[in-house]
Write a structure and sequence with these properties.
Layout (H helix, E strand, L loop, with lengths): L1 H30 L12 E4 L6 H14 L6 E4 L15 H12 L5 E4 L9 H15 L3 E7 L3 H11 L6 E7 L13 H19 L1
Parallel strand pairs: 1-2, 1-4, 2-3, 4-5
Length: about 210
């Protein structure tokens, strides 16, 4: 009975500690993936592509930085169309970006970065395409714009690809409407985003 009481007390203590600390632990986990180090004077803002709808959050954030003087150009890499037979009906990120521009009645001009392999499928692909474009245009300072929870991975990929080029790489994250680093475990979208990001980042480290 004494042992049962002892282990029960330990178990209850652990439950209480977890109940009190789990928000801090989960928030700390999410904050690991966030980097925000953009500074003014960049040659261009590079808005990374993503699933359909990605530009709804990312481009307005890039436009805000653009109008605040962080850079004078906005670049968008070319993504690969998932089903080539339906490319005439597929609304890609480039099309989405122009829809956002029209809706916001913004005067900013967007530039498309050509892909060396028929469209990017990873951030590494985008980084290689952006590197080639940057060398052609003599860029020295870039700000990569993506979702907040993907900023560390984007920064890592671009730093790796741009190694020894002398190009300064910074990142800035667009906020998601449904969740942030303090609430991500309260929505399916947040859980999916941060758990998948953890796995994906580990794979990128091994690439």
């Amino acid at each position: 009975m004494k042992k049962l009481f002892y282990y029960s007390c330990i178990g209850l203590f652990i439950i209480i500690v977890l109940a009190i600390t789990y928000p801090f632990l989960l928030t700390g986990y999410a904050r690991f993936f966030l980097i925000e180090n953009a500074s003014k004077g960049a040659d261009a803002l590079v808005v990374l592509t993503g699933p359909q709808g990605a530009m709804i959050d990312r481009l307005p954030h890039a436009l805000k930085l653009y109008h605040e003087g962080y850079a004078s150009r906005i670049l968008i890499p070319s993504e690969r169309i998932p089903n080539q037979s339906l490319k005439t009906v597929y609304k890609n990120n480039w099309d989405e970006a122009h829809t956002v521009i029209l809706h916001m009645q913004d005067s900013a001009q967007l530039e498309s970065i050509p892909s060396a392999k028929g469209g990017a499928t990873t951030i590494f692909d985008e980084a290689h395409d952006v590197r080639q474009y940057s060398m052609q245009h003599n860029f020295h300072h870039l700000i990569i714009v993506t979702d907040k929870h993907k900023t560390r991975r984007a920064h890592y990929a671009f730093e790796k690809v741009f190694k020894e080029t002398g190009v300064k790489i910074e990142v800035s994250g667009a906020s998601e409407d449904y969740f942030n680093e303090q609430t991500w475990w309260k929505s399916d979208a947040g859980i999916s985003a941060y758990l998948v990001e953890g796995i994906t980042f580990l794979i990128y480290l091994c690439a």
